Amino acid sequence: MLEIFKKMIGDKKEYKMMMARVEALPEDYQFVFKKIQNYMWNFSSGNGMDMLHMQYELIDLFEAGAAEGRQVLEITGDDVASFADELVANAKTYMVKYREDLNQSIKERLGKNKFNQ
């Protein structure tokens, strides 16, 4: 139980440090990051660690863009939703989990051979 508590505290500290990096970005970058972040959480599964790793990568990308003096939409493009979709495309999402569960339950019931016919 103590290990779980320590992990929760560590995760919270890590998240706060990540968000401090976001707060150091220009306002437009902060706004877009937070909107993408909220969008991404709709697709997370499990403990959300896949999403956190992607958010770190997004912060790195945004920090580099800001340092180069680029506008945030020069990085994301005008279709920010499509940009965000590309970010979460490789994440373990609930949709992927539901698809896997559906296929697995069919395979278990009907057998692998019947499922592939």
From TrEMBL:
Would I find DNA-binding among this entry's keywords?
A: yes
Species classification: Bacteria, Bacillati, Bacillota, Bacilli, Bacillales
Name of protein = DNA-binding ferritin-like protein (Dps family)
The record's listing under InterPro entries reads: UCP029876 (IPR008316)
Q: Which UniProt keywords apply?
A: DNA-binding
Query: What's a Pfam family this protein contains?
Result: DUF1048
Species, as recorded: Priestia aryabhattai (Bacillus aryabhattai)
Any one GO molecular function term = DNA binding
